[in-house]
Specification:
about 300 residues; 2 domains; two-stranded antiparallel sheet; about 40% helix
Length: about 300
């Protein structure tokens, strides 16, 4: 038996169809996500993704769902690879929470660049295309500047090489200056938010952290995740191709690299073994806590040398 609220939402979207399957999707820290399969009366079927903002997000921003729908609409109309938004339903429509219905895209994240030719180049092209669309800023005035806070480690963290050194050096230059014009940021541009199909990047998803700010923020977040999850070589190819497409000022890239590494370390160290285990069935069966610590220390050392 399907949720009455979800069924009503789908009937609002497609009055000439009925749901035959609704499955909950993993992920989405600020929303409950579902994929719904509808059968139309003439016999065809179509899939949609539903995002229902959770109560925590709505408490901090009651307009979050409507703003997400508008942002996706602007991005899609600008030609960026995002799911096409089809419908927004406010909670005033009788639903428990406001919901966004969007295109279901065939694709999965890729965490191992060996599986896809030109992985780093495609990854870089997607980010550069987003940052090139500076005109979009005028169309999304509700987006706030990226809320970068100096990462503080939990008291129960594990020993991590270079951790304290990274914190001390980042604190000395905090807040990080900017030599680049403010642009549209995804806010969490990592492999888990990119969908691939037939060896091509099909979509950028999960725009809940979208903001404005220095493009170096997105670049650094991508760099650290590619470095420790995939390889230093993939990170380097990604960075070189991105800067060819979008030659921004990199004076403070090393500082944002430290921020990106500490940002992940703060989350990972609460359960490092569980954190790396996530990747065991995603192309990295031997991923370990020791691997994360080694790559973290290498990345931080390079950033400190470049400050």
């Amino acid at each position: 038996m399907f949720s009455e609220n979800l069924t009503k939402l789908l009937q609002e979207l497609e009055p000439d169809a009925y749901p035959i399957k609704i499955e909950r999707l993993e992920g989405g820290l600020s929303a409950d996500m579902y994929v719904a399969t509808l059968r139309f009366f003439e016999g065809t079927k179509r899939k949609y993704v539903i995002r229902q903002a959770n109560h925590k997000l709505l408490a901090s921003n009651p307009e979050a769902a409507s703003q997400e729908y508008l942002l996706l609409t602007k991005l899609y109309n600008a030609g960026l690879p995002v799911p096409k938004p089809y419908y927004f339903s406010p909670n005033s429509a009788g639903l428990e929470r406001p919901s966004v219905v969007m295109e279901w895209l065939r694709g999965t994240p890729c965490y191992n660049s060996a599986a896809i030719p030109n992985f780093a180049e495609q990854y870089a092209n997607a980010l550069a295309s987003l940052h090139h669309n500076t005109g979009l800023l005028r169309e999304v005035p509700w987006l706030k500047p990226y809320q970068a806070e100096l990462p503080h480690m939990p008291k129960h963290n594990q020993r991590l090489p270079k951790l304290r050194e990274a914190q001390r050096n980042l604190a000395r230059i905090w807040p990080i200056p900017s030599n680049n014009p403010s642009g549209l940021l995804h806010g969490d541009f990592w492999p888990g938010n990119l969908l691939w199909s037939a060896k091509r990047l099909r979509a950028i998803v999960d725009w809940e952290d979208a903001a404005t700010g220095d493009p170096l923020i997105d670049l650094a977040i991508s760099r650290f995740d590619l470095y420790w999850i995939d390889s230093p070589e993939t990170m380097q190819r990604f960075t070189q191709h991105y800067l060819q497409r979008n030659p921004i000022n990199t004076r403070y890239l090393a500082a944002w690299d430290l921020f990106a590494a500490l940002r992940i370390a703060r989350m990972a160290l609460e359960d490092l073994n569980g954190w790396v285990a996530f990747f065991h069935d995603k192309g990295h069966p031997k991923m370990s806590a020791a691997h994360f610590k080694r790559r973290f220390a290498e990345f931080v050392a390079q950033a400190l040398a470049a400050l």
